[in-house]
TrEMBL record:
Domain of life the protein comes from: Bacteria
Annotated protein name in UniProt: Uncharacterized protein
Polar residues biased stretches: 52-61
Region (Disordered) location: 35-61
Residue stretches of biased makeup (Basic and acidic residues): 35-45
Amino acid sequence: MGNLKKVLVSLVVFVLIVGGVSMLQAMGEKSSQKAEVKAKSERLKPKLQAPSLKSQANSGTPTVQQLLDKVEENYHKIKDLKADYNVKTWDSEFAKFLGIIGDLITQDEKFFFKSPDKLKWIPPYKPKTIVIKSNVEYSRVGTGMLFTVTKDTPVKPSKLPWYTLLDPDRFDFYWRLDEIVTKFDSRVIAHPETDVWVIEAVPKGSNPEDEYNYPVSNGKLEVFVDYNKGVITKIDDFSDFTGFHSDVPPGLRLTCRRESQNFTLISNAWISTKLTLTKFPVPMFAPDETKEEYTLSNIQINTGIPDSEFEF
């Protein structure tokens, strides 16, 4: 009986051992299968490569055309505009010529705009009204040392150089944006702050269709665009006067800055209500810094200004 008991116990132990080994083998096989499936899955996964520095730099950067399209989208909301217009000029030499004490010259005017290319300024002395249509200026040209003008002085047209289209008193909804592409070699060079991108625009060698080429062929513009608002906030003008005079150091120098400020959302369009123009000193050419400031107030948009408003 005792021997039989020992045999039975041995059989039970043997069965347990065999079962445990089989279980371990099964677990091992299952684990091995899982590992193989995982390895196969890993092999089939697409390899994610780290982006190059070039692709990182270009990621999310709008093109020149995209930036200009945003500006165009904003100013095309403005069919016409009229406003009170104040201009201030800080120029001691000109003030002295006019007999003004100090350096500030100021004047209140009325301003009108009609899309796409009509502008009008009415100063306090109405015979000196200026109208611009398709970049041709119409005004009464005075005679004599003081260029005296009366209501009987004939109105004469004067074709303006194409680059005056970038003058700040035209306001950003009038700028001919295509000029930045057709007359300049342009590229996006910087992203100095949220939503603001900088376009470098180097004038092309020749613009034969124009009466004048760009004033300084070896200069450049840097155009700052707020992509969110669709507005040009600043234009820096760089020129190289190398060779003009020995006292002028070589290389590009910032000579002029046009800056748009105080943007206001009116009738779903962003309007700059204050613009400044600063001309920086250039040895032998412009020894003093001068500044102009243009301010719009009482702005009315899309009131249906007739074409007759731009006729004398």
